[in-house]
Amino acid sequence: MLFQALDSAMSGAFVSRSWMDAISDNVANVNTVRPGDQEPFRARLVIAEAVRDSHGVAKGVRVAGIREAEGEPTLVYDPRNPLADENGLVVQPVVDLGQQMTDLVLASRTYQANLSVVDRVRDTYMAALRIGQ
Prior knowledge:
Layout: H1 2-28, E1 34-35, E2 44-52, E3 58-68, E4 75-77, E5 89-91, H2 97-131
Antiparallel strand pairs: 1-5, 2-3, 4-5
Helix pairs in contact: 1-2
């Protein structure tokens, strides 16, 4: 039972870490512009799913994939930008900074909660070992 809790918490921490990595990449590219005729940078969104055993009992989570944010990019007239196309347009990234910061708080708290479970499982396991001595 302890190892099952440890596996679940570790898988949750891994997914949270992947989520934070994607968010940091999105925030780093919030000002990345491209020529108006090119596809913009799109925020990367982590897709998580439950991992179940053969009986359908949840055993943790895993990263099922990463998809890009949807939505129409914004074209901005900026003829001085070296990346501007022949019409002076650059395309803004499809990244909602407010949403990214909210997701960062959630991912960080989820990561912390999972590591807290790992600490508690370790402490419980060590206490059980001391009892057996």
